[in-house]
Amino acid sequence: MSASEAISIRAEYETGNVKPLLHEIRHALERLLKGEDGTIIDMRALPLAPGEEKRIEEALGEGEVRAELNALGPSVILETSYPGVWLVTHRNTEGEIIGRQIEVTFIPSLLESQPEDIRAGLAGLENELAEDPA
C-alpha cells in the first residue's frame, strides 16, 4: 500500500450559495417593507451541497411562531428569528420532505383563509344561528 492510499481523503465542497441566499432574503424583506409582493424561494430548486441547507436553517434561527397543518401530509410553518421570514416544510404521508420554501411575507399563504372557505364558514354560522332560537 502506498502512502497516498493509506491517507483517508474526505472531499467536501460548498456551492457558495448560502451567503447569496441570505442576501436575497434581505432584499426581499426590503421589498416587502416598501409594499411590494412577498417572495417565495424554493429551497429544493437551489443547488446546495450537503450540509448547506442546515447552515441556512441555523443562520435563520427560530422565531416565536410555529404552525402545523395536515393536508395530504403534514406541513410545518416556522417563523425564523427574522420576522417576516418563514420556513415552510411539506412532508408526504410517509414523512419524507417533498417541498421546502422560504417565504418572505407578513403571513405565509398556507395560513391565509381562502374566500371559498370563508363563504362556507359564513353559511355554516348562518345556518347555526337560524336553527338556534336563543
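(the above was protein one; protein two follows)
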Amino acid sequence: MIQGFARWVLVGATIGHAACGAPAPGDSGAPARKQEVETTVAIDEGAKPWPTGDLVREPITIAFAVYALPGIEVDVLEAAKRLHAKAYAHLPAFEGPDAMAAKPGLWISTPPLSEFAPPDAESLRFFGRGLSPEQVIGVQTSPMVVLLTFTSDAANASRVHGDAIAMLAVLAEKTGGLVWDENTRELFTRAAWRAREQAALADPTQISKHFTLHSYRDDEFLRIVSLGLEKFGLPNIAVANVPVASSDGMAKLVNLVATAMARTPRIEREGVIEVEIATPVDATKPAPPVRADVRLAVGEPHEGDAPGPLAQIVFPGPRATLHERQDALLDLVLGLEDSIVDADHDAELLAASARAKQQLAAMKPRFAKGIPDMELLMVKAPFATPDGGNEWMWLEVVRWEGSTISGILQNDPFRIPGLKSGANVEVDEDSVFDYTHRAADGTERGNETGVILQRRETGK
C-alpha cells in the first residue's frame, strides 16, 4: 500500500508510504519504535489565556520610509513635505515623537543613516520585494532616508493606513526611491508596492498582504512570528515548536487567525478565537463545521519581535503529544487528510531505494551534527501493524544519533491504532526506504520511489 498525505505541503504530491504485509526482499523489516522522545518542546499548560475584550490597542502607529538611490538628484524630504501639503494636509503634522497621540497625524523626519541604515544585501535576499541586483547594491550607499510615521485612533485607522500607502506610492514614483516598511521590515520597489495598494484594507481576507511572517529555528523546531499586525492595532501572532514539515500549514493557520482578528477584533471567550475552516480536500464528502476554535495565550516576546502585545497560538496538553495536537488542528482547519493506494516493492522500487540509502549515508555526517538551519530532511520507514505487517510512513528527522533517527511522524496510519501524525518516533537507519531533502535555498532532492509510484498511478 502507498499512503500519500496532504498534510506536508513543502515538497509536493509525490510523497507517499507503503503498508505491506511482509518485508520486501532486501529490506530489514525492522519497524519503527514509538517513543516518548525527549525534546525541547515547552508545555503549554502554564500559558496565560488571552483575556476577553477588544483586541485593538491605541495609538495605532504605521512607519514607512523612502531610501533615496545614489545618482538621483531629487530631494526626498522636500518632495515628502510638498506632497503632504498638497494632498494629505488633512493629516496634521506632528513636530516630533513626543507630540504624537491616538489621533490621525503624520511626522516626517530624516533619521541619520547611522541609526536607520538600509538593510544589507543578505537580508534583502529574504525581505527585498522586486529589487534588481543594481538596486540591492545601490541602496547600500543611499544618501538619505525619509521616515514617515503615521498615527491614528481605531475609528480612523483604515483611512489613515490607506493614505499612508497611497502617499508612499506617489513619493516613490516622484523620487525614484525604494519604500521601506518599518513594521514588516521589507523593502519594495514602486512596482512591488502596487500589491499593497490593491489589497483592500477593509477586507479582512486581504490582511495577509499587509503583514509578514518570520520563521527561524529555535532549538530543534521552528518559531513563526508575524510582523506588521500592529498597523491594524492588533497583536502580532506567534507559534512555537513547529516541525519544519508543518511550517507552511502553520503559517496558513496564523493567517487564518489574523483574518479572524481583523473580521471581529474582540475576544468573547477567554483564550479562544474562532477561525473559518478551509474547504475540504474532497468536496464530495460532508463539509466540516464552518468554524473551529484556536487557543490563544499571552505570548512572551523574543528579541527581534515587534513591540506591543503578542498572541501565542497554543495547543494545551502534555509535552509528548504536542505535535499530534498541532497536526490534528491543521488537518481540521485546512481540510487535510491522508490517502492510500496499493503498491508492491518490486525490483524498480528496490533499486531506487538502494540509491536513496547510499545518498542518505553520504548526508549523515552533516545531519548527525544537528539539523542545519532552514533545511528539512524526511525519511520513509516501516511501522509494525497488529497483523504482523508493516506500514511505511514518513517522519521529519529531528536528531540522528548513531544508527537511530528520531523524528516527528508525518502520516496518520491506517492500520496502527493509537499512533497519530505528530507522534515522536524512532527508526533505525538501516530500515529507511527513501528520503527527501529540502535545502535552505528551496532546492529539493530524493523521493525517487515516490516519483516512480506517481508515474505508475497517473501514467505520466
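Reviewer note on protein two: DSSP finds nine helices and 24 strands in the chain.
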